[in-house]
Amino acid sequence: MPELPEVETTVRGLARVLDGRRLTRVEARRADLRRAFPEDLGQRLTGAVVTGLGRRAKYGLIHTDRDDTMVFHLGMSGRWRIDPSAEEPHDHLAIETDDGHRLVLNDPRRFGSVDLVRTAELGEWGPFKALGPEPFDLTAKELKRRLEGRSAAIKLMLLDQNIVAGLGNIYVCEALFRAGINPRRAAGKVSLERLKRLVPSIHAVLAEAIEAGGSTLRDYAQPDGELGYFSKSFAVYDREGEPCPCGGTVKRFAQGGRSTWYCPACQR
Q1: How far apart are CA 143 and CA 133, in angstroms?
Q2: CA-CA distances (angstroms) from residue 239 to 6, 11, 47, 173?
Q3: Quick one: average pLDDT of 28-53?
Q4: Which of 162, 59, 77, 65 is nearest to 115 (CA)?
Q5: Binding-site residues from annotation
Q6: Where are the alpha helices (DSSP H) in the chain?
Q7: Edge to edge, what strands does the sheet with 68-73 contain?
Q8: If you ran DSSP here, which 8-state letter would residue 231 be given?
Q9: Is 90 left (phi over 0), alpha (psi -120 to 50) or beta?
């Protein structure tokens, strides 16, 4: 599933051709993805001017001058294509702009979603209402407060969107490795000193992944078709059995329905 860096990269790519442009055509080519497209999507967006783009957790945001925001989630396999040379079978939403650009949302597995929310009501919109802070806004003290008394593993708590919004499996594994924290450690027992290493590690790994255009996993690609290359920098993720620089060996185990990779020699 595309994670925060992939969504941020996508939003930045879309902004280059959408920001400030008038939408001349918005066409949903099927009734639904994970859930139904808004029935009035085309009516409310055609003729609107895009006033800005943003991201909340793993959702992309396209704001318009009609006080509407189109909220999209890429699901497992969704990606935007800019000015594609040919149509593909899973192009489910098409947008055209006043300067001739064409953007297409392609989603073979249809686990993504598109919603239309009044911009002023975004904070109270169902999927956003209980979200925790964005990772880049997080401090060690705030994370300590949110983890207080929690007996669940630190890895699982970091994946809880009510604790921190937008973190996913890849980057949590990598951040815990950089901070030297065992992913099995009870979240409430991680000291403030350790969290002071963890939070900058989260910031750094996300920033590096965004700079690299994300990680190329299965179907993900940037809107311009380029593939992200942060996967070449993985220290532990998907590296079971490979050596760690500390002299240990990367291990994998199942945790909360996902695989976790870590080095038991240097993550305590």
Answers
A1: 10
A2: 21, 29, 49, 11
A3: 97
A4: 59
A5: 90, 109, 150
A6: 4-18, 41-45, 126-129, 140-147, 154-159, 169-179, 192-211
A7: 50-56, 59-64, 68-73, 113-118
A8: G
A9: alpha
75: number of Cβ within 10 Å: 19
| Model pTM score | 0.92
Highest mean pLDDT among 77-81, 84-88, 261-265: 261-265
Helix 169-179 with 192-211: angle, nearest 10 deg: 130
- pLDDT of 227: 47
CB atoms within 10 A of CB 266: 14
Catalytic positions? 2-3, 58, 258
How far apart are alpha carbons 197 and 78 in whole angstroms?
33
The rounded distance, in Å, linking the Cα atoms of 47 and 66 is 9
Yes or no: say if 195 and 143 are a contact pair by the CB < 8 Å rule.
Answer: yes
Residues 114/32, Cβ–Cβ less than 8 Å? no
What are the residue ranges of helices labelled H in 4-138?
Answer: 4-18, 41-45, 126-129
Distances (CA, A) of 44 to 38, 65, 72, 133, 259: 10, 11, 16, 30, 42
**pLDDT confidence of 164, banded at 50, 70, 90?**
very high
Question: Sorting pLDDT into bands at 50, 70 and 90, what band is 228?
Answer: low
Selection from 86, 82, 79, 85 nearest residue 101 by Cα: 82
Q: Which residues are annotated as a binding site for DNA?
A: 90, 109, 150
The residue with tokens 């980057």 is 171
For residue 7, give the DSSP letter. Answer: H
